[in-house]
Specification:
- By secondary structure, the chain is an alpha/beta fold.
- The protein has one domain.
- The protein is built from three helices and five strands.
- The strands form two sheets. A three-stranded parallel β-sheet has the order 4-1-5, sandwiched between helices. Strands 2-3 form a two-stranded antiparallel sheet.
- Strand 2 (30-31) and strand 3 form a beta hairpin.
- The model has no long low-confidence stretch (mean pLDDT 79).
Length: 95
């Protein structure tokens, strides 16, 4: 990533935000010229959910543990975009 494209997480961290994450969390990240990942943890403490249906529990842990005097940012990296597409699933769900 070029220097003028800085991830928002950097500004939040520098601004004193309490940060956490769960799910798919590598991005935003930095890769060097040999394709090695650098700066893996750019979005705070990782809360590891065993199942996608339990991400909310990890968010609750974050809320319970965070510094209540600071603003917060929590990265929810869902895998839902990678699930199989089911035709008419939106209308069948009632949305």
């Amino acid at each position: 990533m070029q220097a003028f494209f800085l991830p928002i997480s950097r500004f939040l961290h520098e601004g004193g935000y309490d940060m956490g994450s769960t799910g798919k969390t590598w991005a935003p990240g930095v890769i060097d010229k040999t394709n090695r990942v650098k700066n893996k943890n750019m979005i705070g403490k990782y809360y590891n959910a065993k199942k996608q249906t339990e991400y909310w529990k990890e968010f609750q842990k974050f809320l319970d543990e965070r510094d209540k005097e600071k603003p917060f940012f929590f990265w929810f990296g869902t895998y839902d975009p990678h699930r199989p597409y089911e035709q008419n699933s939106t209308s069948l769900s009632g949305i």
